[in-house]
Design brief:
D-Maltodextrin-Binding Protein, domain 2, alpha/beta, globular, twelve-stranded mixed sheet, 41% helix, 2 domains, 12 strands
């Protein structure tokens, strides 16, 4: 009996080690990447980047999009004690402080960062690495709007009643970018600005993709997007109908980044994926499908980027997380009136 028990124990141990080995092998050859919805869409950069990465490395990638960028970070925070994702894509410069405070990321300094402009480095602790950038801007339909605004203030004109689609700063990185833009320009008077702006808002939606879809469907003549967005319509539709507005006071920059999720067991595969985001293949995909400027300067750009405008004035908001949380609550009160 003792010999039989010993044999059973040995067989059980061998089976357990075998199963563990298979699980580790499966884990190291599959990455779960959290991203925003437009990144994972069929017209976004995600599918092409994933296909090229899988062909080069043999590592399978699963893209999961909980929503827009802030929703993605919220998901990571909710799963902090039992993380599911290995890599996150789409947290930006306005989310660095929150992401670091939440401790949902672990650092990785990709060797390819040497080719990135130092001004585009999101975080000197390398919990997030940049992969593309652009200017937040209001875009408009030139077939519906003949008199265009030239500043944040002119957006409040009565002639634009129910004409603007924005995104929610609690869920969307463009929504947060616009909100911080108004805080920086108007300072202590930002609440009065939003009260003046409110009648001109058709709606405030959860994500950029929802808002931009409403805009191109003709629901409103103006939408919050990027100064590079018109390049998409030139590239894929052959039209200059949709244009971006460059405002007198300047524009905030969004730098999008990616990072390793803290607690992931697939660190080496995750590092390979982050490196791949800085490869020429991915950088060209970000320009062509995300319609954003690559962080690697010598990346070839499509001719349509002649319509990807840049602002000469860059606005850099200075609001800490505690102040921002209070401001968001005050914004909710205004929007609920």
């Amino acid at each position: 009996m003792k010999k039989l028990s010993l044999i059973v124990l040995l067989l059980t141990a061998i089976f357990s080690l075998s199963a563990l080995s298979k699980n580790e092998e499966s884990s190291s050859n599959e990455l779960l990447v959290y991203c925003y919805d437009s990144f994972a869409s069929e017209w976004g950069p995600g599918p092409a980047i994933v296909q090229a990465f899988e062909e080069e490395t043999g590592i399978k990638v699963i893209l999961q999009a909980p929503g827009d960028g802030i929703t993605v970070l919220t998901q990571l925070e909710l799963e902090k004690e039992n993380p599911r994702a290995d890599v996150v894509v789409g947290l930006d410069n306005n989310l660095v402080e929150r992401a670091l405070n939440s401790q949902v990321l672990q650092p990785y300094k990709s060797p390819l960062l040497e080719s990135v402009d130092p001004e585009l480095i999101l975080d000197d602790s390398y919990h997030l690495i940049p992969y593309d950038w652009g200017f937040f801007a209001i875009c408009y339909d030139s077939e519906k709007l003949t008199e265009v605004p030239h500043s944040l203030e002119s957006l409040t004109s009565e002639i634009y009643k129910n004409s603007i689609i924005l995104m929610d700063p609690r869920t969307s990185t463009p929504g947060m970018g616009f909100f911080l833009w108004t805080l920086e320009v108007y300072g202590d008077n930002w609440k009065d600005y939003w009260k003046r702006l409110k009648p001109n808002l058709l709606t405030v939606v959860e994500s950029w993709s929802t808002g931009y879809g409403l805009f191109t469907s003709g629901e409103a003549p103006m939408v919050l997007s990027y100064s590079s967005s018109p390049a998409y319509h030139v590239e894929y539709e052959g039209t200059t109908r949709y244009q971006a507005l460059i405002f007198d006071e300047g524009h905030p920059v969004q730098i999008e980044g990616a990072g390793l999720v803290k607690g992931s067991d697939n660190l080496e595969a995750g590092k390979l994926f982050l490196d791949f985001l800085l490869s020429q293949t991915s950088q060209e995909a970000f320009a062509l499908s995300n319609i954003m400027f690559p962080v690697i300067e010598d990346t070839p750009l499509p001719e349509s980027f002649a319509y990807a405008l840049k602002s000469d004035k860059i606005i850099t908001p200075h609001v800490d997380q505690e102040q921002l949380d209070i401001a968001i609550e005050e914004w909710l009160e205004i929007m609920g009136e």
